[in-house]
Amino acid sequence: MEKGKVLLALTGFHPQHWRELLAAEREVVLEPDGPTDPSIAYAVVWKQKPNLLSRLPNLRAIFSIGAGVDHIFADPGLPDVPIVRVVADNLTQHMTEYVVWRVLDHHRQSMLYRAQQQKKIWRELPQRPAEDISVGIMGLGNLGRAAASVLLSLGFAINGWSRNERPMKGVSTYAGEAGLIPFLNATDILVVLLPLTPNTQGIINYGVLKELRRRNGLGGAVLINAGRGRLQKDADILRALTDGTLKEASLDVFEVEPLPKTSPLWSHPKVFVTPHAAATSDPTHLVPIMLRQMDAFERGEKLENLVDREAGY
Ligand code: NDP
Ligand code: OXD
Q1: Which candidate in 228, 230, 292, 309 is catalytic?
Q2: What is the Cα–Cα distance from 289 to 88, expressed in whole angstroms?
Q3: Phi-psi region of 10 (alpha: psi -120 to 50; beta: other; left: phi over 0)
Q4: Residue 55: active-site member
Q5: Which of 74, 165, 227, 235 is most buried per CB count within 10 Å?
Q6: Strands 61-64 and 83-84
Q7: In the chain, alpha helices (H)
């Protein structure tokens, strides 16, 4: 198969560095040439414009620059070619750091100590052993499993929830709709690492948060969402924080991004906000993986980390 040309279609990311790295090995374009450009074989995308890819009759594959692919499925004219998502040590490492950072921060009562510091209060708070805290990873996939294994090594009790049964040593696993409530009932700190699909949209709602366990030394349940914003209902999280259903939350993703300046989440004393920055896609690490895949595909080998179109992730 001949060496295919790459269309780079990124929204919200500066294309320059991606372009330079891709162009070291392949011809790269930022716009298709004409209404039905036959010269493009691959598209490297983040939130591509609707119906852009349907104009490429010889498109062989679409590469997401992220682990999530909901931004690709938002296109009503998505052509029926393989979709490759990111599975990369560098991204996994960043997400593991984020999850461990946020779990430890809540576990070690950082918000309370900060509030005390502001008032110059010298008071030691009770310290609970990690093994008394159950961290429930909602979405025990590539990122969830990596975070789970580091949290396990720190002594936390770990639960995992996935669509299919996913056994993992040392982790209490739950699957599917039937496993959701038992999973939540056994979880003190809920870490959301689900993909956004028609089945998961809005899953982090008040009713779900109400099911979390609250009999730990944390003084309440905690939510950490680094999956996708539209998994959650921002208003339900605020309600849960107000009535004590949730003690605290760390949110990296929001229903609307950037988080509107008018959102009460920005200034809520029990919410830690990051701007969808848990695990950044770094072209230095990701472009070589994409180029290697394109080369292998042209030698007749299979693409790796393919998205299941029916499942939506
Ligand atoms: P994976 O596909 O490896 O894992 C997804 C997990 O979610 C799997 O365990 C899957 O179950 C489970 N899941 C999917 N649908 C359901 C459902 N309906 N019910 C129960 N479980 C379900 O994805 P990754 O771990 O690589 O990434 C997860 C997500 O993290 C991405 O989709 C993206 O949205 C987000 N992300 C966010 C970033 C950020 O910076 N905030 C950075 C990178 C990713 P099963 O194992 O049975 O298939
Ligand atoms: C991703 C992201 O999906 O950064 O990789 O959100």
Answers
A1: 228
A2: 8
A3: beta
A4: no
A5: 227
A6: parallel
A7: 16-23, 70-73, 89-107, 110-118, 142-153, 176-185, 206-210, 234-242, 283-298
Rounded Cα distance between 187 and 192, Å, is 12
What is the third-level CATH fold of 5-86+281-298?
A: Rossmann fold (3.40.50)
What is the distance between the alpha carbons of residues 73 and 63, in angstroms, rounded to a whole number?
A: 12
3 state DSSP class of 224: strand
CA 238, CA 254: separation in Å to the nearest integer? 12
Query: pLDDT tens for residues 101-160?
Result: 999 999 999 999 999 999 999 999 999 999 999 999 999 999 999 999 999 999 999 999
Do 285 and 19 form a contact (C-beta atoms < 8 A)?
A: no
Can you tell me whether residue 62 is helix, strand or coil? strand
pTM: 0.97
Whole-number pLDDT of residue 215: 74
- For the chain, the domains span 5-86+281-298, 89-273
The CATH class that applies to domain 89-273 reads alpha beta
Task: Name the average pLDDT for the chain.
Answer: 97
Cβ of 98 less than 6 Å from ligand 1: no
